[in-house]
Amino acid sequence: MYAQLVKSEGTKAREEMTPEEIAFQERIDRGEKIEPKEWMPEGYRKTLVRQIGQHAHSEIVGQLPEGNWITRAPTLERKAILLAKVQDEAGHGLYLYSAAETLGVSRDELMKLLHAGKMKYSSIFNYPTLTWADMGAVGWLVDGAAIMNQVPLQRTSYGPYSRAMIRICKEESFHQRQGYAVMMKLAQGTPAQKRMAQDALNRFWYPSLMMFGPSDKDSVHSAQSMAWKIKINTNDELRQKFVDQTVPQAEYLGLTVPDPDLKWNEEKGGYDFSEPDWSEFFDVIAGNGPCNKDRLGARVKAWEDGAWFRDGLMAHAEKAAARRAQAAE
Amino acid sequence: MSKEWPLWEVFIRGQHGLNHRHVGSLHAPDAEMAIMNARDVYTRRNEGVSIWVVPSAQITASSPSDKGPLFEPSNAKVYRHPTFFDIPEEVGHM
Question: Hey, what long-range contacts does A108-112 have (CB within 8 A, 24 or more apart)?
Answer without folding.
Answer: A108/B4, A110/A49, A110/A53, A110/A56, A110/A57, A111/A303
